[in-house]
Write a structure and sequence with these properties.
Blueprint (H helix, E strand, L loop, with lengths): L2 H56 L3 H14 L3 E7 L5 E3 L15 E10 L2 E11 L1 H52 L14 H88 L5 H28 L7 E4 H11 L6 E7 L7 E4 L1 H17 L5 E10 L10 E2 L2 E2 L8 E8 L6 H4 L17 H11 L3 E7 L3 E9 L6
Parallel strand pairs: 6-8
Antiparallel strand pairs: 1-2, 1-4, 3-4, 5-7, 8-11, 9-10, 11-13, 12-13
Length: 496
Amino acid sequence: MSLRVKVFLPLLLAIVLLAAYIYALWIPRVLADAESAYRNSVGRHLESVAEGLVPLMLGKQLDAVYGNLDALLEKNADWVGVRLFDQKKRLLYPLGASGPANREDRPGVRTVTQEVRYLDEKLAAMELTVDFTPRLNEIRERSKALVYTLLAVLLLILFANGLILDFMVSKPIRLLADASQRLATGDFDMSLPKPGGDEVGILVKSFAGMRDAVRSHTQRLSEANEQLVREIADRKQAEEALRRAQEDLIRQEKLSILGQMSGSVGHELRNPLGVMSNAVYFLKAVHADADETTKEYLGIIGTEIANSQRIITDLLDFARTSPPRRVTVTAGELVRQSLKRCSIPENVTVEVAAEVPEELSMLNVDPLQMGQVLTNFISNGMQAMPNGGSLHLATRLVSGNEPGNGKREAESGVVSVPERKGFIEISVTDTGEGISPENRKKLFQPLFSTKPKGIGLGLVVCKNLAEANGGRIEVESEPGKGTTFAVLLPVEDGAR
């Protein structure tokens, strides 16, 4: 129920009760009082008439009596009739009437009696019939008009109070309700009604104070929350940095120990393997006409000795990366020399695409080290396609702020290449099974390998060699579609 209904309903009920009281009690009482007053007035008038008839009655002047009564009837319009009786209650006036007619039953018609006396002697009796209806109707209509006027004034006052209530109370309350909803959503810039000196003004001032207090507390809470978020972020960054530092320290210690062990073991094993390799060569030369089984086993021994020497070479390269012997060489020449070193299976097709002219692809790098990197990429690509496939080698020019295609990953995440010079990208793409995201993050970790006979040092050595020549390695792979290894090398200044 609205405030307007709560306020006006009792007032309207009071007006209805007042109207009912006026109609049921007040107007009848007013009519009764008026009738009593009229009756008294007629009684006094009739008494004066009786006094005037005394001399006429004593003198037996009945004609004069009749004339006076006729004149009174004509003069007083509300007099219905006058009857005059003698001492023996015989009708003297009006003449010819058989007797008095009873008219008391008519509404508003009343009968007033008056004796005509002289001293203590009763000379006659008068009976006057008076119709109070016109006067009572007039009073009734005036009373109704007064009541209607009073009700109209009350309703007008009620309507005016409604307008005043709506303007001074309901409208400010609606504005405060809307402001409270906006305040609940965090909007503190709502407009408030102008406060006055009444209760609504006190409410508006109180709401404004609450709004300012909530705004202040919200700002302090927001600042505290932002500070807490910054502290949490800083703490997480610090914890992450500490964790990485600890991991790097542990990794460096492991790599240092592994490097020392690799160098020692590599030197100790290389000499025996060299002797074994010479022995196999000697046996092949001496027994050139040996049977096929002997030649097959000698070939197997030679192959395993070569594999062992390759592993030892990786161990030694991991333990100590030699400074690059830089010479000027083209990217295409590096690709061609690397392909010559690899044995390409018949079920693998090789495609070479050069997007950079030879004269613009000059690199100042160690060709042996970069050849080792590309040879490793090519070998990995062919091993990833045991059932055959396509191997695609490409060279292209990359600007200083465009490392690769922006999507490849290196051993520490997305590559960030300095903007000081351009780069030549040499990429090797296979159509193998690809590398899972979990394994792609571990590619450049020492001793991690997915190959049955791998020791997990090939890509680590390639990474060290690429960085030694001022470059970097990127990897892009999608499981089921293939893998791309790319090395970015800085272009020689004279070639740009």
